[in-house]
């Protein structure tokens, strides 16, 4: 059965006249007659009764009309969905996030993308930086967000956002009286740093900044993530150092002050993805990231 014969068939069932149906289809009557004849031959049944004053549908023709309408409708849907997928407007995007990472920028990116492409299903996976890399290699992830990614020949790295660095303090701490805090102000203070399991991360950046000024940080606690860090600050265990995203954790008794330091002024949040991924979904998502990044 040739699908191209279905539309002429449907038009003829509506007109029940070869001349009128051919006019609607913008063709002559002989090609229409051939199309109907070929359709009947392929099905092995007569779809129309040829009468002296016109035609009418046979019982088989009436039954086939319902199926033909459904087939044409499904073909239109399939065509539309295929085009949408090819243009990045439909499909599934698997996004990797690290614990509480990018509390500010990532939700903003996801919301902006979802508004623009609501038919794309976005699946979030909570994965460490190393787990994101592994998932990308296994093609289980479309894109990941992390800080300080290691170089990998098969992985591309783009900056998603740049965040200022802040100091988390308990409200009773004397440094809350300052509007900005320097590393010199933190010398000798019990610090709570994270992450403690990454090959390189914010903890290492903080330590490097201290050493560059001839000081050594007093590390009281090394924890897994920003939530653990801020929780300990709220419990008066010490002073935390986090990014602007971390300031969105509004725990009772915690205040934030901007860290003033040239070396530790800001931290990049990166997105990572396979270099050979030509998916329209990924391309459209990266377009949103770059658009928001450059605002």
Topology (elements, then pairings):
Layout: H1 6-15, H2 18-25, H3 29-43, E1 48-51, E2 54-57, H4 59-86, E3 91-97, H5 105-116, E4 120-126, H6 129-137, E5 143-146, E6 155-170, E7 180-182, H7 183-186, E8 190-193, H8 202-212, E9 218-222, H9 226-234, E10 239-243, E11 254-260, E12 266-274, H10 280-293
Parallel strand pairs: 3-4, 3-5, 7-11, 8-9, 8-10
Antiparallel strand pairs: 1-2, 5-12, 6-10, 6-11, 6-12
Helix pairs in contact: 1-2, 1-4, 2-3
Give a verbal description of the structure:
Strands 3, 4, 5, 6, 7, 8, 9, 10, 11 and 12 form a ten-stranded mixed beta sheet that branches. Strands 1-2 form a two-stranded antiparallel ribbon. The protein is rod-shaped and about 105 Å long. It is built from ten helices and twelve strands. Helix content is 41%, strand content 25%.
* Average pLDDT, all residues: 91
Shape: rod-shaped
Secondary structure: helix percent: 40-55%
Secondary-structure element order, N to C: HHHEEHEHEHEEEHEHEHEEEH
End-to-end C-alpha gap = 54 Å
* Number of helical stretches of at least 4 residues: 10
Number of domains: 3
User: What are the segments in which pLDDT stays under 50 over at least 5 consecutive residues?
Assistant: none
CATH homologous superfamily assignment of the largest domain: Periplasmic binding protein-like II
Radius of gyration: 32 Å
| Major sheet description | 10 strands, mixed
Structural class determined from secondary elements: alpha/beta
Task: Just name the CATH architecture of the largest domain.
Answer: 3-Layer(aba) Sandwich
The top level CATH class name of the largest domain: Alpha Beta
Report the CATH topology name of the largest domain: D-Maltodextrin-Binding Protein, domain 2
Number of strands: 12
Instruction: Tell me the β content.
Output: 25-35%
